[in-house]
Amino acid sequence: MARPAPPTRLTDRKRAAIVDAAVAEFRAAGFETTSMDRIAATAGVSKRTVYNHFPSKEALFVHIVDALMARGSDERATPYRAGTPLRGQLLELVQRKLRLLHEPDFADLARVAIVASLHSPELARQLMELLGRREHAMTTWVRAAAADGRLRTEDPAFAAQQLESLVKGAAFWPQIAMGQAPLTDAQQDAVAESAVEMFLARYG
């Protein structure tokens, strides 16, 4: 997946280094063990610089999760296209979702977020607020297709949730919760094909 160009201003470069260091530390050690001192040392900046950018470890972690969620809610990457066959559009949408789920930083940080939320109700509350503010690209697409009369549903958000559950049931929760191996490319294709066929059989 394409990444933004490296920042040019010193303060922006330091912020990017802090975020990269935090991702590495959270992935390696988890939320509880990671400290702002470790993040500062890994980023090569002072702890004061870290706090100048992020007031707390929780705020830094929420920023990272928000950036990950933004990748999954970018409707510009997979917009609904009127007049184009639904099946091909849905396959593109689901395959993009599968690629995101299989990015190492996404899977690792999802595990960290789940465990950290169990131990910190305040962090769990902040993460739930993020979920409430962002509409996933899948929901945006289903809403547009339903408004165009091409999907039969009065509740696009619920329909999109069902589609996402079909995907995550095979390609997220078994890996996150039960330690199963990531799906191969062929397995991802099979999950995408099956999920799209089931969804269109119900709503198409």
TrEMBL record:
Gene3D superfamilies: Homeodomain-like, Tetracycline Repressor, domain 2. It comes from the Bacteria. The keyword DNA-binding applies. Residues 35-54 bind DNA. It holds the Pfam family TetR_N. The keyword DNA-binding applies. Residues 12-72 form the HTH tetR-type domain. Keywords: DNA-binding. This is TetR/AcrR family transcriptional regulator. It comes from Luteimonas endophytica.
